[in-house]
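> forwarded from #structure-qc
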């Protein structure tokens, strides 16, 4: 797409030239040419490509363009959530999930007088879900908006009011007053979607309103690290900047997703796009319309994937540990999980009878439980299957803060921690973990419960289940001590940190090259 913009005329000439050359070399097929028989026979065995023109004509009036006015300083801001399209164009490495919709940020001023902030426009898409003018779009489309204007397919403009937003799922609800009933689309059931089905994407890419593209569902349940509840539908229908917030439809004209992000080394479509599934849209939008916010259930656990190495280290009876549950790494004090007796090292395998295959499944399942309701949880402890009923509470505004008082484990309560620069997540050495790792009773340290792929720790060969007992000559007995010791070692300027670990009863040093800095934290569901 960048080539089309920067070299549009040249590219067009090249295409025309190639077409002309092909036309000159072609010869008309003769009736007696039997070489066509095999081709015709093969074509008869295939279903023809569907014609979506009637569906598009019916749905297009319900698809809108969303124009947002915001200030330069807001437009160029970025945050950890990555939910602003301007961030997708600035400072991110090639291949990082892009969020289509906003233009690149403006360059910084020179040495002259500071200029006053100027109003700039960002463009996205949306769709009407009720004849009263209720519209669904992405949160990152309207984030930091000064004003929002909605343009219908017939060109009429209306000011829009933001009814509510949910950054965790990147959804937002708008409302316009058109003075008459408006055409709208129906939300379908994303649970019925299957890979290989035809889909249609509509929206406002690059400001080109009423644009339609088609493709198929490439995959389901994609987690691209964009938010805690990622369950994206992946499609190869072309999605570009400005498509954000537009609908992804099935062949019945039902919305099965909201086009939200693309994976691209260039910023343009390369056939990997992501849409928020409609089942999630229904739950979130219903609450936004009713209350202006979303209320979610809170269990109070920090969970992680189970690698084959971790399953082996914890002696978990799993055939496919990467897809067989969520390992509890830490529990927030006084949380529903703590009150129910759950412990670090437990593996949650089901919530209310629904299989939990990953931490993402656990986060979504608990979030969908109404606060004060009961959640029936199935889990493994020491290889034994157990069940417990947990009274879920309302998720606090900052769930991560629930873990800052310390994680629960056995008879002690310590804090789990992470060292983002190295890619390590550490947990206290609880009695359960001590037994599962076959460590002696006098062993101390911090258990490595997660190593980020391709991180410095991963490249150094550190593994889940290793016991970190020292940093250089300094002994460590907890995650906090380990993080502090690592930070002190990094500040020395030596360029490397020597970690002492115990793996399967054998002690060894592991050296990690570093560049200095400090990064620690934790998180929870």
């Amino acid at each position: 797409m960048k080539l089309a913009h920067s070299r549009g005329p040249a590219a067009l000439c090249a295409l025309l030239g190639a077409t002309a050359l092909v036309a000159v070399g072609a010869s008309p097929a003769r009736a007696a040419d039997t070489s066509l028989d095999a081709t015709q026979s093969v074509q008869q065995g295939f279903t023809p490509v569907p014609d979506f023109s009637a569906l598009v004509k019916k749905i297009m009036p319900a698809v809108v363009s969303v124009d947002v006015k915001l200030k330069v300083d807001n437009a160029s801001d970025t945050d950890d959530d990555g939910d602003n399209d301007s961030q997708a164009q600035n400072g991110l490495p090639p291949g990082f999930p892009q969020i289509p919709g906003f233009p690149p940020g403006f360059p910084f001023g020179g040495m002259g007088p500071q200029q006053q902030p100027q109003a700039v426009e960002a463009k996205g898409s949306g769709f009407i879900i009720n004849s009263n003018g209720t519209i669904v779009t992405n949160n990152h489309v309207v984030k930091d908006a000064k004003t929002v204007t909605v343009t219908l397919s017939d060109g009429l403009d209306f000011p829009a009011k933001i009814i509510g937003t949910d950054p965790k799922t990147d959804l937002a609800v708008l409302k316009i007053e058109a003075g008459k009933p408006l055409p709208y689309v129906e939300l379908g059931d994303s649970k019925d979607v299957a890979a290989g089905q035809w889909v249609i994407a509509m929206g406002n890419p690059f400001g080109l309103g009423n644009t339609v593209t088609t493709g198929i569902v490439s995959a389901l349940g994609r987690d691209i690290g964009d938010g805690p509840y990622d369950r994206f539908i992946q499609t190869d229908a072309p999605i570009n900047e400005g498509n954000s917030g537009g609908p992804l439809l099935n062949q019945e004209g039902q919305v099965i997703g909201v086009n939200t992000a693309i994976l691209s080394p260039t910023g343009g479509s390369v056939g990997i796009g992501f849409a928020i599934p409609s089942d999630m849209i229904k739950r979130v939008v219903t609450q936004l319309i009713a209350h202006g916010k979303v209320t979610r259930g809170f269990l109070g656990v920090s969970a992680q994937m189970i690698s084959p190495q971790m399953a082996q280290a914890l002696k978990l009876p799993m055939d496919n540990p990467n897809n067989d549950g969520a390992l509890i790494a830490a529990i927030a004090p006084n949380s529903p999980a703590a009150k129910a007796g759950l412990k670090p090292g437990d593996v949650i395998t089901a919530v209310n009878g629904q299989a939990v295959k990953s931490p993402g499944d656990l986060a979504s399942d608990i979030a969908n439980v109404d606060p004060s309701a009961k959640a029936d949880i199935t889990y493994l402890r020491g290889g034994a299957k157990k069940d417990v009923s947990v009274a879920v509470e309302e998720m606090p505004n900052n769930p991560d803060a629930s873990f800052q008082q310390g994680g629960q484990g056995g008879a002690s309560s310590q804090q789990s921690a992470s060292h983002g620069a190295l890619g390590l997540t550490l947990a206290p050495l609880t009695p359960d973990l001590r037994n599962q790792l076959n460590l002696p009773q006098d062993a101390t340290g911090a258990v490595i419960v997660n190593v980020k792929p391709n991180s410095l720790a991963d490249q150094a060969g550190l593994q889940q289940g290793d016991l970190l007992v020292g940093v250089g000559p300094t002994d460590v007995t907890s995650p906090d001590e380990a993080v502090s010791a690592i930070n002190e070692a990094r500040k020395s300027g030596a360029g490397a940190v020597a970690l002492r670990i115990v793996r399967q009863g054998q002690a060894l040093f592991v050296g990690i090259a570093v560049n200095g800095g400090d990064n620690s934290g934790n998180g929870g569901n």
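QC bot note: The mean pLDDT is 76. The first helix runs from residue 2 to 6.
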